[in-house]
Amino acid sequence: MTAIDRPSSVANIDPANDNVPYADVAAFDVRDLVDVDEVMEREELGPNGGVLWAMEELEANFDWLEERLAECEETVILDPPGQPELTMHHMALPQILHRIEKLGYQIVVIQLLDSVVTTRPSLYLSSLLLCVRGMLHLPYPVVNVLTKLDNLASVGGADLPFNLDFYTEVQDLHYLLPHLSAEQGSSQSSKWEPLNTALIDLIDSFSLLSFETLAVEDRASMASLVKALDRASGYVFAGARGVDDEGRTVEGGASIWAQAMGGEWAGRMEARDVQERWIGQREEFDEVERKQWAEEAKEAGAQVSSARVERAVEIASKGGVGDEEGDEELEEQRKWREEMAKDEGGSAAKVRK
């Protein structure tokens, strides 16, 4: 959000989060309202019970949350607890989100799933169950994301039995059955196969699941996810054409529905491209990316140096060449020109022009 100059705020609403990496820029922190350690000691609760109690306390003090949201930017990113109880059956989180929605916010829920789950069929299947339950419990647009794609190859992702699109599009899960049997051992496969089949049928019956992919340091990957989130929230349609009294779009502009169905709003990277980038040919792509970064750094340096030339000319035109600042500027620029001419021939002259 910062990189694309979109005003946004980030806040922690996880009362047990002792390591907030964005603490310096956090708009607010729920730990200022409730301390989970005090809750656990006073109410004689364990870690999960303490978090659930603390979330109920946040719900009971919603005025505190409302006041802090009023001070935030247009887009607010809330970092909630990761306990599955909150997204499976406990009512505090959905009730908090419902009250936030009544304040006028468009809510999108992002369920983050470490891509390492794809390396074990049983772990992937159980994770799908959690995602489905979360989508049923939280009645808002949900974007499911397979994260840490850049680490997948190093944790067994290079040996996946299926291509990545099988996991992102949650294709026919019955193909997992042989692999589940192999993981559980031949002596146990007959015992667990009916349960595995029932779970797969349950997930398939909802037809809710698909996954975006994310390698957080990859600009293209992050941009693709932001587009998907903007589509889920309706943000991409904020600039839609107006309509006349009869509901027809004016100035020949496309309707919101036409925009929604247009390919330019897809916002997804093809799974085969993600697999090629992070699993199949990661080293080759890394090398290409390093060269691109070097070119960008070189261009940025040239732009800075060109600005220094202009400043030196400005100082000279004002008769300030002899002052200390002007001398330093010109001497620095002279050294830079010599180095550039030595290393790259005519590029220094091009920059000066």
TrEMBL record:
GO terms, molecular function: GTP binding; GTPase activity
Bias (Acidic residues): 322-331
Coiled-coil parts of chain: none
A Gene Ontology cellular-component term: cytoplasm
Keyword line: GTP-binding, Hydrolase, Nucleotide-binding
Superkingdom assignment: Eukaryota
Basic and acidic residues bias spans: 332-345
UniProt cross-references to Pfam families, sorted A to Z: ATP_bind_1
Region (Disordered): 315-353
Description of how the protein assembles with itself and partners: Binds to RNA polymerase II (RNAPII).
Its biological purpose: Small GTPase required for proper localization of RNA polymerase II and III (RNAPII and RNAPIII). May act at an RNAP assembly step prior to nuclear import.
UniProt family annotation: Belongs to the GPN-loop GTPase family.
Protein name: GPN-loop GTPase 2
